[in-house]
Amino acid sequence: MLNIIKSSLNANLRGISLVSNNIANSNTTAFKKSYSNFSDIFSKNISDTPKAFSGMGVINDSPRKQMFQGPLKQTDGALDLAVSGIGFFTLSSANDTDNKFYTRDGSLGLSSNGEVINQQGLNLLAHPVIDDATYNPAILENVIIPPNKTDSFGNERILTNVNVSSSGVLKAVYGLDEEVVIAKIPLTSFENMESLQSEGNNLFKPTPESGKPIVGIALEKNMGEIIPGFLEGSNVEITDELVKMLKYQQAYSGNSRLLQTEIDITKRLIER
């Protein structure tokens, strides 16, 4: 009996921890809330009769992410990007493009040498553009926007603006009106997004359960739309989380009282 009560206390404490983390990240850009799964534990004797089965308590399964979209918030940032629909941005470290991370957090910026990076310094990966017209879908490389450009007359122009279309075409504007196509930003999806492994900082990595990355272009097939000047908010609903917190706390309190009762009964039996 004590083991059953202990397992219930641990399960509800884990649930309280997950809800607390959800509430703490309710204002985190593109945060995806988690929920706790519980499974009952049964012991089975050699006999197959119903009386041979006895409950042994509860166990926590791995937390699951709820990957549905959060609300979009307007920022008007040139490199603030949100995805409306299915899709993740692809990131990697500067020196290891094979070690990829996936995120819905499109709060990007420029480094001193023109690399498009996120807040952790990871580089945005995109398809390179050839002759300002076509892109190579077989290649993903770091996006670099040169801070300066020399025009056909030998005049040096500085970067004045950056534009991203809903289909992911990244253009840099030099001087007053000279546009240069830099890259084509792809989106990546997975067969089972809820099974992605969380790496912190809104970064995910694929697992055998999530399936391999499926790279595509925004607004094509099942991919979503890239919304420039917006960021995706957290999908946490505070009211729902508070209701869950009350349920977990009541269950924890009830099991605590049950544990105390079990201890009192055991003491009386020992003192006889």
Protein traits:
alpha+beta, three-stranded antiparallel sheet, nine-stranded antiparallel sheet, elongated, 39% strand, 272 residues, 2 domains, 21% helix, 24 strands
Describe this structure in words.
This protein is α+β, with helices and mostly antiparallel strands. It has 2 domains: 2-67 and 236-271, no CATH class; 72-232, no CATH class. Helix content is 21%, strand content 39%. The protein contains 2 helices and 24 strands. The chain has helices spanning 2-24, 238-271; strands spanning 34-35, 38-44, 53-60, 64-65, 72-74, 80-84, 89-93, 96-103, 106-107, 109-110, 116-117, 123-130, 134-135, 141-142, 148-150, 156-164, 169-174, 178-184, 186-189, 197-200, 203-205, 214-217, 225-228, 230-232. Strands 7, 8, 12, 13, 14, 15, 16, 17 and 18 form a 9-stranded antiparallel beta sheet that branches. The chain has a 3-stranded antiparallel beta sheet with strand order 9-6-23, with no helix packed on it. The protein has a two-stranded antiparallel sheet with strand order 1-4. Strand 2 and strand 3 form a beta hairpin. The model has no long low-confidence stretch (mean pLDDT 90).
